[in-house]
Amino acid sequence: MIGPAVxxxxxLNCTDTMKTVNLLKTVPLTGVALLVxxxxxxxxxxxxxxxxxxxxxxxxxxxxxxxxxxxxxPNVDSLAEHGIRFTNSHTTSSVSTPSRYGLLTGQYxxxxxxxxxxxxxxxxxxxxxxxxxxxxxxxxxxxxxxVGKWHLGLGDKxxxxxxxxxxxxxxxxxxxxxxxxxxxxxxxVPCVFIEDGKVVNLDPSDPIQVSYTTPFVGEPLARDHPELxxxxxxxxxxxAIINGIPRIGYMKGGKSALWxxxxxxxxxxxxxxxxxxxxxxxxxxxxxxxxxxHVPRVPHERFAGKxxxxxxxxxxxxxxxxxxxxxxxxxxxxxxxNTVVILSSDNGPVVDDGYQDQAxxxxxxxxxxxxxxxxxxxxFEAGTRVPMIVRWGDRYEGVVSDALFSxxxxxxxxxxxxxxxxxxxxxPDSRNALDVLxxxxxxxxxxxxxxxxxxxxxxxxxxxxxxxxPSDAPAIEFYTKMELGNSPDEQLYNVSSEKCxxxxxxxxxxxxxxxxxxxxxEETAKGVAAK
Length: 531
Ligand code: NG6
Ligand code: CA
Prior knowledge:
This protein is α/β, with parallel strands linked by helices. It has two domains: about 5-210 and about 255-440, Alkaline Phosphatase, subunit A (3-Layer(aba) Sandwich), CATH 3.40.720; about 450-525, Arylsulfatase, C-terminal domain. The chain is built from eleven helices and 21 strands. The radius of gyration is 23 Å and the shape is globular.
């Protein structure tokens, strides 16, 4: 493993590596240090590029490098072989919108109202005045781009977007100079890509209309016309029909702009690669949100039937290919050594998420949640413990880190990496854990705080003790067969023990529960959004 001074060195365009190591041993890793060259004279900074590949709904056990997958993800595995594979990394939430909010703002989503799963016509949840991760990278002199799944709202207020003109405010107003995004999810209208605030391939003579309240006259609905569907819902998803697939929300028009579901991953990947190539000569930050493996799972024909696990497994192969293409592109451009690639997921796995796609029937031995209880939506461990890999050129060889890490800390950690001082009040919950991301610190945080789909809060410490706050929300969601982890009683588990979250042991360890509860209360005392 390489120490911080050498990483700093490798960020510089140096001819004499050893000299630089010696120099940098006495210079702290800051933006100033980055401006000092081998000879001590100022030179062009070579700050590392940063790519966050944020998967959708990929569980800890879905990737073959984590040991419980019945599908092979060789490109991801290669990332792990040449990087650091984290075993104890946590999102702030077990669903998408709040997790992404926490990642991009450094504020816990439960502190801000309206951060639950967003509709496709939600107003922009992160407001222009808020300092974001992208703003931070801009300040550090990076080109910034967001490509793929967004799911954090667009425009000023729900339902007021001008889908036929320029949607505003949009990502450019929160630090992303370039964006090519899906407004929400694959199963929510509008089913179009939006590039820099404008719907791609829109024919003005066929304007788009979107509503989450009122169906459009003349547009057949999935609930009334099952004969028009090529995939059927198992739950919900009974409104607009786009490409023979039932969706959430109503939509009319925009035919020329509609995505073809089989091409979503390619469209996202190609735009990501274009962004990388365009900015190869300057530092860049790319937030790459894949649509894989969210429902509806309709991967490209070249993956159909290839995993043996049905569309869910095939979508994992598609995700893996995206990872491979990104890495190949970096190598071909000769910038792989100066690019930090972070791979993770927005929440844990779900098998049936509302479409009859045979995910349970074909699951076989595959265990998306690995050895953890629960999954997407849940307060139990698999809801938020997600796969994570960091690769930075060839600085690491198959390091495995059990450090406790929260995605809330990406913000301050990457600010430290890029030498930016976060303004007072911004990213209030984010701590600098750069040493964890670079493998220097194998211990990590003292605790992580998480929320489930019902905003039930839990806290877990570095020994695996987990306290879940009481909640009157349902214990189980029937259609996903998911244990949500809610209980009217306080719960205490130890996820590191063999029993692994099996029995509520609060009566056995009341002091531990009280200690964790107090830690959680200290955090919530700083502010919780009204429900
Ligand atoms: C749920 C949807 C599910 C998925 C989820 C959001 C139904 C029945 N279920 O309400 O399919 O879209 O929302 O997933 O509509 S997330 O990963 O983007 O948070
Ligand atoms: Ca998700």
